[in-house]
């Protein structure tokens, strides 16, 4: 009470004016440096190991052995609408028309394009979960059943998932599906059971052309680190701020 | 494995148009998730109507004050059911409350819901009925009912004028707290959709605001129709000044909701971002009937025209009643269509913006049409039970 009594109106005004002055002077004296403000040290500089993944679009031949290997390794239902990874074919035509297909995720092979003389270019784009640093699926999960692991992999705890499917809605890449056996959300785990033992992911293991690369980003000498550092790469839908850890080399502007 | 789903999806494969990511064939949120914002909206709207009497002293709608509260309560009790029925593991649903993930809009909705149910609505109904509950607990002849009221008194039997005065004051405070809570409740439902940046059909900061105003429209229309039906069933004359006032509020709510929706559409068309082509195809194609015809023309413009006519032209009582009943029904259908267009419409197009999937509603089954109809009319049965146990009429008779 005595403190309150002693704190007169004059003193209050003095303190308020002082505080305002400090704030104003701070605003003028130390302008925020954009470069400092926006620089974020990547997580793999702090944590070890930290897994990364890269795809070289120019090397992919669309054989879909990766899709097959993934389904076998991870017991993904063999239906044409459940995939942890799939391969899309893009056909760009002289008219500007873009045709995309992925028959059974690529497993059924691709028919030769109609009117081949109008085709300007065609290429294959393998897709998997982007293991985003800022993953929207992790953000929206109501019970925290999906999470970013210490080593940079987005995982689902299928014993905890309640099956609300909010994460599937939140994923901009269509990387998740609802598993009809477990009745929970399902997605690429980067073959977590394999990489923990020092093995490669199934898709990388079987890729005959080396279009898919995987490794430890925290090791500066690893091939994946070199790839991240030296190649010109892109990520999918960068405007959404999800910060994918799957990077693409040679990605065309038409790829969605 | 769930073979029914697999069979259904195999059938859907041939109906895809353009390119979709292969996992997008299955439409994740079914008709049950259409019901969820619809029911929650009715709750929020009915409560806002009740608050108008209590907080803003709109005397004319006194006859429907208690009825609005009971409508809100009946629908609120059912609101989380469609969500839980829809879960892959309904038995784990409780985890949303036990181990909530604080960054999840869905998890936080659980707490907003509990707050609203426990602290606001139940308390308010109890305080408002306390005097009668005590009286009924003594006078009721049928003993199970008497016991029910006795339990409901919670052991507080003091109904002295001073005590009732305190009740009234507390009730008023609760309504003042309740009004933002009701808006928060439904605004939050809008946020569950509006915060999904992966989906441009949902991702707009206007979503919670649009949801709030359409909720008001649906709740007001709902209470209005229940009131008209109840009067007809009880063979009591409708209090016309009350009905006219509700009509005015309904008109206002529909106009605001509709204007916001149109502003949002204008923004989408004008900005014409990457997703514009697929969105315009969606509206012209798969959503033409449910959006252009039902939501906009039948559910918004027609009620505005009907209710506007009542304001501009002096109509006899009978015609006004018909206009109100028609406008209320159309508004309710239109808002249900709006929920459909948001929830189902938002899942039709691929996030590659290159194609569409399809949705075939099951008839039976956990997430089928029958289940949805069941959950949709369940609140009406609860309302009937509430009207039987806590008749809201006594007080209104005095006031008429």
Summarize the helices and strands and which ones pair or pack.
The complex is a heterodimer of chains A (256) and B (400).
Chain A: H1 2-6, H2 9-29, H3 34-38, E1 51-56, H4 65-74, E2 85-93, E3 98-101, E4 119-128, H5 136-140, E5 146-148, E6 154-156, H6 166-170, E7 177-178, E8 185-186, H7 192-195, H8 202-206, E9 212-216, H9 223-230, E10 233-234, E11 246-249
Parallel strand pairs in A: 1-11
Antiparallel strand pairs in A: 1-9, 2-3, 2-4, 5-6, 7-8, 10-11
Chain B: H1 3-13, E1 17-18, H2 31-54, H3 65-78, H4 80-86, H5 95-98, H6 105-139, H7 143-152, H8 161-194, H9 206-234, H10 240-271, H11 276-284, H12 288-312, H13 317-343, H14 345-348, E2 355-356, H15 369-389, H16 393-399
Antiparallel strand pairs in B: 1-2
Chain pair sharing the greatest interface: A-B, 49 and 47 residues
Strand arrangement in the largest pleated sheet of chain B: 1-2
Separation of the first and last Cα atoms of chain A: 66 Å
Query: So what's the overall shape of chain B?
Result: globular
Number of structural domains of chain A:
2
Question: Can you tell me about this structure?
Answer:
The complex is a heterodimer of chains A (256) and B (400). With 256 residues, chain A is of the alpha+beta class. Chain A has 2 domains: 2-38; 44-135 and 159-249, Alpha-Beta Plaits, CATH 3.30.70.20. Helices cover 27% and strands 20% of the residues of chain A. Chain A has a 4-stranded mixed beta sheet with strand order 9-1-11-10, with helices on one face. A 3-stranded antiparallel beta sheet of chain A has the order 3-2-4, covered by helices on one side. In chain A, strands 5-6 form a two-stranded antiparallel sheet. In chain A, strand 5 (146-148) and strand 6 (154-156) form a beta hairpin. The model of chain A has no long low-confidence stretch (mean pLDDT 93). Chain B has 400 residues and is mainly α. Chain B has a domain at 29-195 and 362-395. Chain B contains 16 helices and 2 strands. Chain B has a two-stranded antiparallel sheet.
